[in-house]
Amino acid sequence: MKGMTIIVKKTTQLIAGMIFMYGIYVIIHGHLTPGGGFAGGVIVAGSLILVTLAYGGNFLNLIKEEAGTTIVESLATMMVIMIATAGFIFGTHVFFNNFLPKGIVGQLISAGVLPLYNIFIGTEVAASIFIIFLSLIIFKEESPQ
Amino acid sequence: MELAISIITGLMIIGALYAIHAKDLLSSVIACGIVGYSLVICFLLLKAPDLAIVQIVVDTITLIIMVAVVLDSSREEKYSRLDTWGYVSAATGVLLIGILLWVFINSIQTLDVLGKSTLRMAGSYIEGAAQRTGSANLVTGVVFDFRGYDTMGEAVVLVTAVLGVLTILRLKGKK
Amino acid sequence: MITYIMCFILFLVGFYGVITRRNLVKIAVSLSIMEISTFLFFALIGYVDGGAAPIVDPADPVKTYVDPLPQAMVLTAIVIGLATTSMMMAIIIRLYRKYGTFDIREIKNLKG
């Protein structure tokens, strides 16, 4: 697909990195400030969509990106279920047990297993939304119009 | 607070009425996006900053996907005269709306005034939640620690939606 | 009480759009409006007068918080609504490429 004009490309060069870092900040500080896994994941997906729309890309490149992103999404979902199952082994034997030490309320490393959940769910949500967008673009490219 | 939310909801109703009656499909999709953005102001007035962040970005992405579908088609709704099936469906719609509105007005008499009702689980979730889960954000604590099964179900729903979209939009199978 | 009724009228506007419109994109837009009214209703139920946003600040204790349970439910529902809308859009674009129209009565008559 064709990219956009040079003004859009220059603006994307300046801004897309900052949006990505803001998304990662919202994911990691999910247990201290409003936000969390879902909000940060969708913000990261938004920055990837911006770069794809502004620069375009030839067709084979997009197919390779889609194949790699499906692998990332499946791995992230599997890690969420494995952390939840690890609650069986440590501590009281229930599913979704919060087994790491809880720490002091308000510090970055606290709240047990919650920051790990935030990171993996954020990765999974970002990968899902990016796959949906990429498959729409690939469909529009390869169907005869 | 009631007055402010009622005014914003009234504007949302006007926007929704335009969205379903517009002649041009692109205008209708943009009006749907505006109704979603007005919901963000309502969330901020109701002291829910978590929901406001999620609703802004999700509404932007919904707008992008809808515009990508509408743009490469004939962007007009063909208007044809109302025939008998049109009148039947409109009459059924008005009848159902009347019945649903009457049932709703009768059944919210048991609710308290806005701002005074407390649900039964609220007390046992809030007290000591910061100590029990260890997180300063109570909504994240409820979503990931007290209600972990719902989060796992939502991750599974997202994976299923991606599987569905990949299957529907596939043109060439493997040789 | 008037706020709940206005929220339900928004739901009924979307419901009317699903029943009487013939264009596929209008049906998808009306379904999205119905979901938005449901999120607003849940957030209205959990509001407490004079409560603060549910973020605990360890240096500054607050008496009452807004109820976090409906907010947790709406948080999950918003992302699921995005997944549902995107799947509907995929079906719609596939139907348009095959039949050439968005109108449901013409698609029913063609029976390709």
Please supply descriptive tags for the structure shown above.
heterotrimer, B: 175 residues, mainly alpha, 8 helices, 74% helix, C: 112 residues, Helix Hairpins, 71% helix
Could you please describe the fold and organization of this structure?
The longest helix of chain A is centred in the last third of the chain and has 29 residues, at 114-142. The model of chain A has no long low-confidence stretch (mean pLDDT 88). Chain A is 68% helix and 0% strand. Chain A has one domain (6-142). In chain A, helix 1 (6-28) packs antiparallel against helix 2 and helix 3 runs antiparallel to helix 4. With 145 residues, chain A is mainly α. Chain B is mainly alpha-helical and 175 residues long. Chain B is built from 8 helices and no strands. Chain B has helices at 2-21, 25-45, 49-70, 84-107, 120-126, 129-133, 138-146, 148-168. The termini of chain B are far apart. In chain C, helix 1 runs antiparallel to helix 2 (24-45). By secondary structure, chain C is mostly helical. Chain C starts with a helix and ends with a helix. Chain C has one domain (2-48, 63-110): Helix Hairpins (Orthogonal Bundle).
Query: What is the number of strand segments of chain A?
Result: 0
Instruction: Summarize the helix and strand pattern of chain C as letters.
Output: HHHH
How many separate domains of chain C?
Answer: 1
Shape of chain A: elongated
- The helix/strand class of chain A is mainly alpha
The sequence of SSEs of chain A as H and E is HHHH
What is the averaged pLDDT score of chain A?
Answer: 88
CATH-defined fold name of chain C: Helix Hairpins
**Most extensive interface between two protein chains, with residue counts:** B-C, 85 and 76 residues
Count every helix of chain C, treating DSSP H or I runs of 4 or more residues as helices.
4
Q: What count of domains describes the coordinates of chain A?
A: 1
> What helical percentage do the residues of chain C reach?
over 70%
Count of runs of 4 or more consecutive helical residues of chain A: 4
